[in-house]
Amino acid sequence: MKANRMEAFSDGVLAIIITIMVLEFKLPEGHDWHALIELGPKILSYIFSFVYIGIYWNNHHHLLHMVRTMNGRLMWLNLLLLFWLSLVPFTTAWMGESHFAATPTALYGIILLLAALSYWLLQRAIVNQHSGDSAFVAAMGKDWKVKISPSLYLTAVLTAYVSPWISGVFFVLVAIIWFLPDKRIEYALRGR
Amino acid sequence: MKANRMEAFSDGVLAIIITIMVLEFKLPEGHDWHALIELGPKILSYIFSFVYIGIYWNNHHHLLHMVRTMNGRLMWLNLLLLFWLSLVPFTTAWMGESHFAATPTALYGIILLLAALSYWLLQRAIVNQHSGDSAFVAAMGKDWKVKISPSLYLTAVLTAYVSPWISGVFFVLVAIIWFLPDKRIEYALRGR
Amino acid sequence: MKANRMEAFSDGVLAIIITIMVLEFKLPEGHDWHALIELGPKILSYIFSFVYIGIYWNNHHHLLHMVRTMNGRLMWLNLLLLFWLSLVPFTTAWMGESHFAATPTALYGIILLLAALSYWLLQRAIVNQHSGDSAFVAAMGKDWKVKISPSLYLTAVLTAYVSPWISGVFFVLVAIIWFLPDKRIEYALRGR
Amino acid sequence: MKANRMEAFSDGVLAIIITIMVLEFKLPEGHDWHALIELGPKILSYIFSFVYIGIYWNNHHHLLHMVRTMNGRLMWLNLLLLFWLSLVPFTTAWMGESHFAATPTALYGIILLLAALSYWLLQRAIVNQHSGDSAFVAAMGKDWKVKISPSLYLTAVLTAYVSPWISGVFFVLVAIIWFLPDKRIEYALRGR
C-alpha cells in the first residue's frame, strides 16, 4: 500500500513537471507564423523532455510494482530521482532559449545523467529485495538499458561542446532504446 | 489496473492544464471595470479551452473504460494526445492576447485538430482490441463525432483567415456536438 | 465509481488552485521586514481564498457522496463550479494588488457568488436524485447555508463600493457559517 | 475513507509545492557556466525546501494512518499545516534571491516553525483519539522530534541575524533528525 502512495505522489510530480514546462513558452511578439520561429528551439526541447518524462513515468510504474517492502531508503532514492527530474523544466527552458548552446545542452544532459543514476540506484535497491529469487535477479541483471543510458548521457554532455547536433543524436538514441516499456519485468511479473 | 493508472495520470495532466491557463491572465493596469476590458478576449478563449478540456476529460474517461489490455502502443498514443492538449494553454493565451488574430486562431485550431486526430488513433487502437465483438465495433464505427471533428477543426483553421467570427462558429459547433458524453459507449457497457 | 473520479478530478483542480495562488506573490524589492509590508494585502486576500477553497473542498466532498447516478448534467454542473473557482487565483491577486479597491473587491465577490450559485445548482441536481427519500429532501431543504451565502456575497459585492471593510465583514461572515462541515449530511449518511 | 481523501488532497498540494518551486528559477542571462553562479543560492535553498517537503510528505503519511475518526477539527488542522507549507515556495525564492540575507532567512525559519507547530497540533489531536491506548500514547509522548523541532527552528530564526551560516546549521540539524521516517509509529502499527 505504501508503494502505492509513493507511486501516486511520483505520478503527481511527473504530471506537474510535464505540464508546467509549457509555462516557459513566452508569448511571441507578433501575431503571424514568422513570430513563432523563435519558439522553434523551445518547442523542440519541450518535445525531448516530454518524451523523457513519459518514458520515466512508464518505466517507473513497472519498477515500483516490483517493490516488496517499502522503507525509508526506497522513499529517499525515489525523492532523489524526482529531485533531478524536477529540474528538467528549468534545463529544458534554458537549452531552448539558448538555441542549443553548448553549456545549456550539457547541463540538460547532466541533469538527465543524474536522474538516470538515481533510477539505477532505485532499481538496485528494489532488486536487492528479491535476492532469493535468482531468476528475477538474473533477468534484471541483463537490464542493459539502465546500464548503458548513463554513458550515452555522458557522451551527449561531452559532445555538446563539439556540436549540439552530435549531442542531439545521443539524446535521441537514449529516447529510442527506452521507448518501449521494459518487457522483461512485465514478463517476470506474468511468469509468477 | 494499468489503464487505471494511465487514467489517473491523464486526469492529473488535464486538471493542471485547465487550471494553469488562468496564470496567463496578467493583472490589469487599473482598478476599475474599464481595466478588465482588454481581458475580454483572453477570458473568452479561456472559456473555449475550459470547455474543450472538460469534454476531453469526460470522453477520455469513457474511452479508457473500454481498454482490455494495456500496452506500450496505447500508452504512447495517450501521451501523444496529452502532448497536444498540453500546448492548449499556450495557444489559448496567444489567441486571446492577439484578440483572435488570424494566425493565432488558426494555430489554436491546428493544435485541437492534432489532438482530435490523436484521440481518433487512440480510439481505433482500443476498438481493435474488441475485434471479435462485432456489435461493439459496429457501434463504435458509427462514431460520427470523432470522424467529423477533424474536418470541423480544419474548417475553423482555414476560415480563421477570412474572419475570426466564422472560425469561431466552427469551434462552437465542435463543442456543441461533443457536449454530451458518448451515450453509445455507456449503452454498450451497460448492455454487457 | 464515476462520482469517485469526478471527485478525484475536482480535488486535483482545487489542490492546484490553492497552491498556485502563491505564485502571484512577487518577490519584494528589499531584504528587510519593511519590504514585506506591501505584500500584506496580497497575503490577506490569499488567506481569504485559502479558507474558501478549503471550505469548498470539504463540503464538495460531502455533497458528492450523496450522488446516486452520475450523468452528463452533474458533470457539467461540477465543471461550472470548478470554472468559477479556477478564476479565484486571478481575482485574489487583483484584489490584493489593488489593496482592496472597490472594483477588484466587488469582482472577487461576484466570482464567489457565481461559484455559490453553481454549488447550489449542483446540490439541487443531486437532491433531485433522492426525490423518493422525503426525509433526506426535507433535511437538505433546510440547508440555509447554501441559500443564504449568495445573498451575503451579493451584499459584499455592493458594499465594496461603500468600504472594503464592510465588504470584508460579509466575506468573513460567509467563511464562518461554512467553517464546519455540513453535519446534517453526515448525520443523514450515518442514519442509513 | 475520509482520512484517505485528506491524504490524497495533501499529497496533491505537497506534489505541487515541491514542483512549482522550480518556476522561481529565472533563466540566466548568459549561456555559460558562469551565468549559473547567481543561481547557486536559489538552488541551495531549493534543496533545503525539497528535503523539508519530502520529510513532511513522509511523516504526514505515517501520521494520517493513525487517524481513527475524521472530523472538522482534523481537517482544519491539516489545512493549517498545508497553509504554512504553501508559503514555502515564496520564502524559498526570497531567501535564495537575497543570498541568505538575515530577514529572508529568518522568515524562512518562521514559516517552517509555524508549519512545525501545526504539525504538532495535528499530531496531538490524533493522539487524543487513542486516549484509551496508553501504550500508544506513551510511545507518541516520547516523540522528541516533534517537540524539539520548533526550538531548533526558533534558534535558526534568531541566529539568522548573527550569521546565515549558523542559522543554516540549525536548518540542516532539523533535516537530519527528521530524515528517517518515524520508526516508533511504524513499530506501534505493526505491533497490533
From TrEMBL, chains A, B, C, D:
Transmembrane segments: 9-27, 33-55, 76-95, 101-122, 152-180
Ion transport among keywords: yes
Entries under Pfam families matching the protein: TMEM175
Catalytic activity: K(+)(in) = K(+)(out)
Membrane topology: Multi-pass membrane protein
Compartment annotation: Membrane
Transmembrane is among the record's keywords: yes
Keyword vocabulary terms for this entry: Ion channel, Ion transport, Membrane, Potassium, Potassium channel, Potassium transport, Transmembrane, Transmembrane helix, Transport
Family: Belongs to the TMEM175 family.
Protein name: TMEM175 family protein
Top-level taxonomy: Bacteria, Bacillati, Bacillota, Bacilli, Bacillales
